[in-house]
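About this split. The held-out portion is used to measure sequence recovery: a designer receives only the structure tokens and must propose an amino acid at every position. Recovery is the fraction of positions where the proposal matches the reference. Here is one held-out target exactly as it appears in the evaluation file.
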């Protein structure tokens, strides 16, 4: 089982950059079928009010680069001080080379620094955090920059009601550093590849290259319009997976870290939607106030950037006042899920800004 306790690493700071363009669900009534009553139910139950998407022509790399630059500036750290760059994304700028290599060059990092991508979505931030901790604790790195950024809005059909109102775009940066004084971090990683079709973009890579037929839009019985080059999601399967596996995963990481739920200052879940987070919290019998769920209402589901996005959106002021114990947990495409228990020191920087255009 992929489970680890890792010592000697601290989170020095986080920054999230959200997309420049605000989209309000009220303005998309026609694309969502014109059903006002259904729209109001979506807003109330699922928490979808507005989201921010990337400026036209910009990419996940652009969002990630702004987040990294802001973080380095806030922490007074040079890019050349970083021994590794991990870039978590499912929407890279190119098939080749990886985003990490391109960003490495843009930042002017040293030739001795490692740089690689991780192709994961909703669980990707925790996976990246795990890899970064390992590289600092056991891989000869003193500082590792973790970037998680996605522009999922670019692969969603605007007339697909199952996903169109959900996704926002964001880039995040997290700096990990060696620290003898830090508390151990605990990780548990999981995968169920038998369910991979629940969230997928069927056409566009080498199994099914783009063709005229794969770009043809089709409308299903529920009125959702999409092509095979668009993101497809089976909402019922994803919901069932989330509320089945996440409570088990949270109990597992709490037991592994020898924590009671009451000792956790915040459970930062992947911001899938308010309804899913609320159901997970209810099954765990934790106070809803411990599980922030409003970031998705302001910025949308930010895929790999949603956990750091929620941290920067909801925890910055708390970090200024006290050390915090967090449980972080991401779940989704793969199917993949991952959880971590981390303690973050008082005064740790966390910031959020809007993409510059």
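Reference sequence for scoring:
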């Amino acid at each position: 089982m992929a489970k680890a306790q890792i010592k000697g690493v601290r989170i020095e700071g986080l920054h999230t950059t959200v997309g420049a363009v605000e989209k309000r669900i009220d303005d998309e009534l026609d694309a969502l079928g014109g059903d006002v009553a259904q729209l109001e139910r979506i807003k109330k139950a699922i928490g979808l009010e507005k989201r921010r998407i990337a400026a036209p022509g910009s990419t996940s790399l652009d969002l990630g680069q702004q987040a990294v630059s802001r973080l380095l500036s806030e922490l007074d750290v040079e890019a050349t001080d970083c021994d590794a760059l991990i870039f978590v994304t499912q929407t890279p700028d190119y098939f080749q080379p990886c985003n990490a290599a391109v960003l490495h060059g843009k930042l002017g990092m040293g030739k001795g620094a490692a740089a690689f991508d991780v192709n994961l979505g909703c669980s990707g931030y925790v996976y990246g955090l795990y890899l970064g901790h390992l590289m600092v604790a056991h891989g000869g790195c003193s500082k590792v920059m973790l970037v998680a950024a996605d522009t999922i809005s670019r692969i969603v059909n605007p007339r697909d009601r199952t996903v169109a109102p959900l996704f926002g775009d964001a880039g995040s940066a997290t700096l990990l550093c060696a620290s003898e004084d830090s508390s151990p971090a605990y990780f548990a990683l999981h995968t169920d590849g038998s369910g991979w079709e629940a969230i997928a973009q069927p056409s566009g890579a080498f199994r099914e290259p783009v063709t005229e037929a794969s770009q043809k839009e089709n409308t299903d019985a529920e009125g959702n319009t999409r092509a095979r080059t668009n993101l497809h999601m089976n909402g019922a399967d994803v919901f069932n997976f989330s509320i089945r596996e996440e409570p088990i995963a949270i109990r597992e990481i709490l037991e592994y870290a020898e924590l009671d739920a009451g000792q956790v200052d915040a459970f930062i879940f992947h911001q899938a939607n308010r309804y899913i987070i609320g159901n997970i919290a209810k099954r765990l019998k934790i106070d809803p106030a411990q599980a922030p769920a409003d970031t998705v209402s302001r910025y949308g589901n930010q895929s790999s950037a949603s956990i750091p996005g929620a941290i920067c959106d909801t925890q910055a002021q708390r970090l200024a006042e006290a050390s915090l114990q967090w449980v972080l947990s991401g779940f989704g495409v793969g199917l993949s899920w991952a959880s971590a228990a981390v303690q973050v020191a008082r005064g740790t920087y966390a910031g959020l800004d809007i993409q510059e255009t």
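Annotator remark: The two ends are 44 Å apart (CA to CA).
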